[in-house]
Design brief:
The protein is 45% helix and 20% strand. With 798 residues, the chain is an alpha/beta fold. It binds adenosine-5'-diphosphate.
């Protein structure tokens, strides 16, 4: 039977007529049994079969046997659409099938089947692909059925006309071979869907082989194709997915590899992202706690090192021992600076740095910063000075600790990198209004300078101009990075101007709300003016910057100022002018100062000499008063006031001057002190430090012991460690607040090893009166105890 003959024998029925036929066969079976059924199947022109319960074919009619040969398999498994899988359906099953021919490509057909008794009977009607082509024969009904079935088929079906264009294609074919639609592809050349290599193969290999066999089957164009030559010259194509074992196409393989690679990268990226998200989350939560505990852990032993070194330094030791101890003390101090820097840096980096917003006097902040570093400067023979240019507000809202930190860092660097000359701080308002101001601070030195090409990286963390400076001067390279960030947090910016070998200027601004009237306090200036206006004053100072600054400050108060750099010059000036006051730098030899004084006397003037001394060396002697550098306008007014008093009163006021701040503090400010601290070393340090201040203390090991002791003893002050076992300092404080009325409550000073933002607030919130962070330093404890004493006497507690 040729393709054509078979297509002509296509019965004039629809799918339902196949079912009618099955109905008849089923009835026959029930009346006459299996043999009659087989006989009837044999007479059919369609392919017919009977399978057993196991699905294995019991009987194939001659038509089916002819194309299958000895092949035996369950025809239901040829069904395209098999929702029942490989298990036989209990009811009827129907659909498109591809009948595997023994010779040639599979034949498309439509199958209907249903169970009869323990068996199943099925009929398959072949689908004529010619019917799909435009030149189809058969009735309109037949064509319609064929087309409908072909349109719904899962395989790609197509007819290629002799001129190579696609005469017909179903949606599955369009989808499998192209991205275009059926409508777009119909009538276009089939070769358009092939690449060069495939087109070459189609022409030179596949078409010629079809000339001999009428059919061809194999992998082509990334699919499994079955081709059959139709009578009208069309080539009928069925296209299925390539069986997996044949999918060795290089493109497919490559694409697969690429996809796998992409998936792997994607997987890794997702894993990394998840990990970092997790870490970020964890680190955010853990950072504050970690910082606090690191600070605590390091400060606790440092407390002992620094505290006990201080105690030893004050004892009777020889020079070598003093030298060693001072080295230990200095190393301990720099370790603490380092810890603080690292803590600050991490806080800024994790956006945890919070700034206070309290009223501060920027001028005082500069003075305090200079005072902290004055000793260091004077030990290097450097001058320190500052100047306020123009009007600045008396008070601003800001964070005094952090502003001081920036200034101390910049001034500290300036001193570190300067061998001779001076370090100046200039302060001025760049913008000023009733509510707000932009203050500019400049720290200027006459030191080694910074090469232009290194200035760009200066503010990066851990950056130092050259590593040999680290060895020579020490440092971490964090100071400037922190200072710049702090400046930015204060709404300003920081920059550097420097010339190698000549010196550097670090300039920064801060923006702040004003909290006190703009302009320099008029009373302050009035006091100065009242004292010196019109008076002849001499300034003898070798450093030109200091000379200029001191003269200009006195000039502001309308004094008649003359200045010079040498005492010889001073003597000739004094011979001509009767000066009321002469400011003379201490670096001039004593006999020269005496010569100046006698020159003044010879000129008939009662000149008061004020000795200008380096920081910390301002001891007045009988002959003259002294003024310590860096010169503060307020100290200048005070010393002028004292100098102009009669000598007797001056001597009297010198005698009544207060004793050194903390010597014998315990006698001046007697207090009963309880120390609550669980760490034995810290107890020892505290006891020794307080003994030096002439205090005897009692010790409690935890909060419970504090409460117990308070039952029997009355204390004025409790130095309360906040972290203790059994009952911590906060809880103990709350308990004390509950048990004692305010006037009988001891003054509680929190002692904490944490230096985190909020510790002070936490201590105050718990009801404590003051706060000290460890390591314990005698000066700080002294100040806190003095304060406590004044509070206690003020409320009549003592
Ligand atoms: P540290 O001083 O702790 O190393 P800084 O961040 O404060 O860290 O300073 C970084 C570097 O900048 C210093 O090591 C030094 O090389 C340079 N530098 C800072 N200030 C000055 C200055 N006034 N003069 C010269 N070099 C300076």
């Amino acid at each position: 039977m040729t393709v054509n003959e078979r297509s002509l024998s296509f019965p004039a029925t629809t799918a339902s007529s196949l079912n009618n036929q099955l109905d008849a066969l089923t009835r026959l079976h029930s009346l006459l049994g299996s043999e009659a059924l087989a006989h009837s199947l044999d007479a059919l022109s369609e392919y017919g079969f009977v399978t057993g319960e196991d699905g294995f074919p019991r009987h194939l009619n001659p038509a089916l046997e002819a194309i299958l040969g000895n092949e035996r398999c369950n025809p239901l498994l040829w069904l395209e659409d098999r929702p029942f899988g490989n298990t036989l359906p209990s009811s009827g099953a129907s659909g498109v099938v591809w009948i595997p021919q023994r010779h040639g490509a599979p034949i498309p057909g439509f199958l209907v089947s249903r169970p009869v008794g323990n068996e199943r009977v099925g009929i398959i009607r072949e689908l004529s692909l010619e019917g799909m082509a435009p030149s189809s024969c058969g009735t309109a009904d037949e064509n319609e059925l064929c087309l409908e079935l072909a349109e719904q088929a899962c395989e790609g079906l197509a007819a290629i006309s002799p001129d190579g264009t696609l005469a017909y294609l179903n949606p599955a074919f369009a989808q499998a071979h192209s991205q275009a639609s059926v409508f777009q592809l119909k009538g276009s050349p089939w070769k358009l869907l092939l690449d060069d290599e495939e087109a070459r193969r189609w022409e030179s290999e596949i078409l010629p082989s079809m000339d001999f066999t009428d059919s061809w089957s194999g992998p082509f164009a990334k699919r499994q194709l079955s081709l059959r030559a139709a009578a009208n010259g069309n080539i009928l194509v069925s296209s299925r997915e390539l069986p997996a074992e044949n999918a060795r196409d290089a493109d497919l393989e490559l694409a697969k590899q690429e996809t796998e690679q992409l998936y792997q990268q994607l997987d890794e990226a997702i894993a990394k992202a998840n990990q970092s998200a997790l870490e970020a989350e964890l680190s955010n939560q853990a950072k504050s706690a970690f910082l606090a505990s690191m600070s605590h852990e390091i400060r606790t032993p440092m407390n002992a090192v620094i505290g006990l070194t201080g105690v030893l330094l004050a004892s009777d030791i020889n020079e070598d021992q003093r030298d060693y101890l001072q080295t230990i003390r200095a190393s301990g101090d720099s370790l603490l600076v380092l810890i603080n820097d690292i803590l600050d840096f991490s806080k800024i980096e994790s956006n945890k740095m919070e700034l206070e917003n309290l009223p501060i006097d920027p001028r005082c902040c500069v003075e305090e910063s200079l005072e902290l570093l004055a000793e260091k400067a004077s030990s290097k023979g450097l001058e320190l000075c500052y100047e306020v240019k123009g009007d600045i507000p008396f008070g601003i809202l800001g964070d005094v600790t952090r502003l001081r930190q920036i200034l101390v860092n910049l001034v500290g660097n300036a001193i570190k990198f300067t061998e001779t000359g001076q370090v100046e701080v200039l302060l001025q308002a760049k913008e000023i209004s009733v509510e707000e101001c932009l203050l500019e601070f400049e720290v200027k030195d006459s030191g080694i300078g910074i090469p232009a090409d290194k200035q760009g990286r200066l503010f990066e963390s851990f950056s130092q101009v050259d590593s040999s400076t680290t060895r020579k001067y020490g440092g971490t390279g964090l100071g400037l990075a922190i200072s710049k960030k702090l400046t930015e947090l204060m709404g300003g910016e920081m920059r550097v101007e420097s010339e190698e070998g000549k010196g550097s200027s670090f300039i920064f601004t801060i923006r702040a709300a004003t909290s006190a009237p703009v302009v320099y306090s008029p009373e302050f200036d009035n006091r100065g003016r009242n004292m010196v206006a019109g008076k002849a004053i001499l300034v003898v100072e070798p450093n030109p910057v200091i000379r200029e600054k001191l003269s200009s400050q006195l000039g502001k108060w309308d004094a008649q100022v003359q200045s010079c750099a040498s005492l010889a010059q001073a003597c000739s000036l004094a011979a001509a002018t009767p000066f009321e006051i002469a400011f003379v730098d201490q670096s001039y030899a004593k006999h020269e100062r005496i010569r100046l004084a006698s020159t003044c006397r010879q000129a008939g003037a009662d000149t008061r000499i004020v000795k200008v001394t380096p920081y910390g060396k301002s001891e007045a002697d009988d002959a003259c008063h002294s003024l310590s550098k860096p010169i503060k306008p307020s100290a200048l007014i005070d010393v002028i006031g004292k100098s102009l008093q009669s000598p007797e009163r001056a001597a009297q006021s010198e005698r009544s001057a207060p004793a050194k701040p903390h010597a014998q503090l315990g006698e001046r400010c007697p207090l009963r002190i309880l120390m609550a601290e669980d760490n034995k070393i810290n107890q020892k340090v505290a006891r020794l430090v307080l003994n030096q201040l002439s205090y005897q203390i009692d010790v409690a090991n935890d909060g419970l012991e504090v409460l117990e002791k308070l039952k029997h003893e009355r204390y004025d002050v409790i130095l309360m460690d906040v972290q203790m076992p059994n009952m911590d300092g906060y809880e103990a404080t709350r308990e004390i607040a509950k048990r004692f009325p305010p006037e009988r409550r001891p003054h509680i000073i929190a002692l904490t090893a944490n230096a985190m933002q909020g510790d002070r607030e936490r201590a105050i919130a718990a009801g404590m009166n003051d706060y000290l962070s460890k390591p314990i330093r005698p000066e700080k404890v002294g100040q806190a105890l003095e304060k406590a004493y004044h509070v206690a006497t003020a409320i009549g507690n003592n």
